[in-house]
Amino acid sequence: MFDLPQVDYVFYNTGLEMKATKDHVKEVAEKYGVEIRECRPEVGIVKAARTYGIPFISKAFSRKLGDTMKGNIPMSVIEEYNQAEDKRAKFWELNKRYPNRKSALVFLLSCDTEGEPRPNAGQFCLKSAEHLADFMDENPPDFKISAQCCHYCKKLPARKAQKNYDLIITGERQAEGGQRASLYCPEGYTACFAQQADEKFRLRPLYYVSDKDKAWYKEHYGIRYSDAYEVYGLTRTGCCGCPISYKAIEDLEKIRPYEPNVVKAAWNIFGKSYEYRRKYVEYKHKRRTENKNVEDGLNESV
Length: 302
Hints:
Layout: E1 9-12, H1 19-32, E2 36-39, H2 45-52, H3 59-70, H4 76-83, H5 87-97, H6 102-109, H7 132-138, H8 148-162, E3 167-169, E4 193-195, E5 201-203, H9 211-221, H10 227-230, H11 248-255, H12 260-301
Parallel strand pairs: 1-2, 3-5
Antiparallel strand pairs: 4-5
């Protein structure tokens, strides 16, 4: 009708994908009579994980904790900063002690870029993860933490595939939460449609589709999801086995009866992060119980 060029469809295969996902891509292509091009990364997920490290908690945390580890910054700097009378002066002293790690210090100390404390620093500071600083201080990780596997296995292949296109169409939804729920929109644009820093346009036609809308659409049009949802019982399928998901181990156990080799591969790549997070959750629950017992004791004495 508008003489627009044909849409090209791309599936980014990280190298660790469920058969259910790959089969679904083929089924969708056949159903709609389109070609879905598969793009693989130049640096595979195994090499990226071994070279740069593996994620823990979230992408933001993985980036900052990776910077912290590279700079050999101990968790003890948090207490050092908290005890300082002049926190601004202490921040700049630490900045000098650990050069080129300013953003890591801001993350660790929950302060602004001038060293002033930020009581409401939000989700992008270490203290937003309950008792994590104490846990990592008492239990230093024996593996490298990084978000680089996402960079090499998803972002770089996407940039390469999108290089010659003016408009990029993706399926993010606000209801998925996380960073997708608070996308930055340049002035004059919306979350559904915006121009990026590289001057390409980004269209997110599903951004305001709620979970209820999606469920209605699925039933009304008889849409079938991949076996990962319909058979295995997963509720989300991001990067298979990614330890950023708090349900990673639980989801892998759902996958295991159908695709044991994928589960084995995920544990080989991300296993240390799974175990470390499991220990952190146990530690957090223990600290909560201890704190509650102290509070109950104080209340009884009063």
